[in-house]
Specification:
alpha/beta; 8-stranded mixed beta sheet; 4-stranded antiparallel beta sheet; about 35% helix
């Protein structure tokens, strides 16, 4: 292996370092609102990482920022690096190339992201024909094979159909097929099973996981379902109020969480082996990043944490690495596992 290839292997495929994002508030001149605040996350080649948190925690906004899909007027802080390149420094053409060749995204609702007046074939072959100069007939041959890989038989007929003729589960498979056709290094899956029934959810996640392993893709899975992420991913990163509060191996986090919020999420899951009349819940409500900044100088989770002490309300914890390699933002992290 050459020194250049060794350096490339050592470079994370995706690295977010102190990443934050804020947007202007409509009708309030000069006022900005923080949506994401200091996210630190590293993703290796071929690795699957789950980004988990309640609605409003900033996880989807973080994923979209990786390919430059930020709201109008957004201002970013920190860095997002893909394969050693600063994404924030990319111009229009380079950013389009990143989306077309290196990073692809599976969105929550395929019906909102597939043009309803164009055929499935047009949707699947457009990037191959326009970006990679593949002949139309060859592009169709390739995508028919990919449709078979994601569990859609009779691909030639499906290419002639329109989105309204397919069920939600089939349409999400079409979305995944379009991602695989681009042959990316990284797939961003933003709540890919939200709009599907339970059976379709498991099938779609199985397809994504199998495709990742077979093709050596890296996967960043955005979800509020901690159990789903733990079953699919190598590592988990938990977000709260716009920042990452804990990152560790999936199996270790589900058995020994080190942040009270992670522990609360795990306790609130239904169990197949234990009977409970009422599930434990985390008291209070989740707060967005801008609320955390406006309301308290301490830990954003402190008002909901049963183990918070006075220091937690006065001092915002920095994310730090513990002796066992776990990264956590909690003043009392060493004690959490014993509670």
């Amino acid at each position: 292996m050459t020194s250049t290839s060794m350096e490339r292997e050592a470079t994370p495929l995706l690295a977010l370092r102190g990443f934050g994002l804020d947007i202007p508030v409509a009708g309030a001149k000069g006022v900005r609102r923080t949506l994401v605040d200091r996210v630190d996350l590293v993703l290796g080649r071929g690795e699957a990482v789950g980004l988990v948190g309640e609605s409003g925690s900033g996880k989807s906004m973080t994923a979209r920022a990786v390919i430059g899909l930020t709201p109008q007027g957004a201002r970013t802080h920190g860095h997002i690096e893909f394969d050693g390149t600063d994404v924030g420094a990319l111009g229009g053409r380079a950013l389009r190339a990143l989306r077309a060749r290196s990073v692809a995204m599976v969105f929550q609702d395929p019906r909102a992201h597939i043009n309803p007046v164009r055929s499935v074939g047009d949707f699947l072959t457009e990037a191959l024909v326009a970006e990679r100069r593949v002949a139309r007939r060859e592009a169709e041959r390739r995508v028919v094979a990919i449709l078979a890989d994601v569990g859609i038989p009779d691909g030639a007929r499906r290419l002639r159909q329109y989105p309204h003729e397919l069920s939600g589960g089939l349409l999400q498979r079409v979305m995944i097929a379009s991602v695989l056709a681009a042959e990316p290094d990284l797939v961003l899956a933003d709540e890919p099973t939200t709009a599907l029934d339970v059976t379709a959810q498991s099938e779609v996640m199985a397809i994504l996981d199998e495709a990742r392993r077979a093709r050596g893709l890296a996967l960043l899975l955005i979800t509020h379902d901690l159990e789903l992420a733990a079953a699919t991913c190598d590592r988990l990163a938990v977000m709260y109020a716009g920042r990452t509060v804990e990152t560790q191996q999936a199996e270790a986090l589900t058995s020994r969480p080190r942040h009270p919020y992670s522990a609360g999420l795990l306790r609130s899951r239904p169990s197949l082996t234990e009977r409970a009349h009422r599930l434990p819940v985390i008291p209070g409500r989740p707060v967005a990043a801008f609320e955390a900044k406006e309301e308290s100088a301490g830990c954003a989770f402190a008002p909901r944490c049963a183990h918070a002490v006075e220091a937690c309300h006065q001092q915002e914890p920095e994310e730090r690495e513990l002796a066992d390699g776990v990264r956590v933002a909690c003043l009392r992290a060493e004690e959490v596992a014993t509670w």
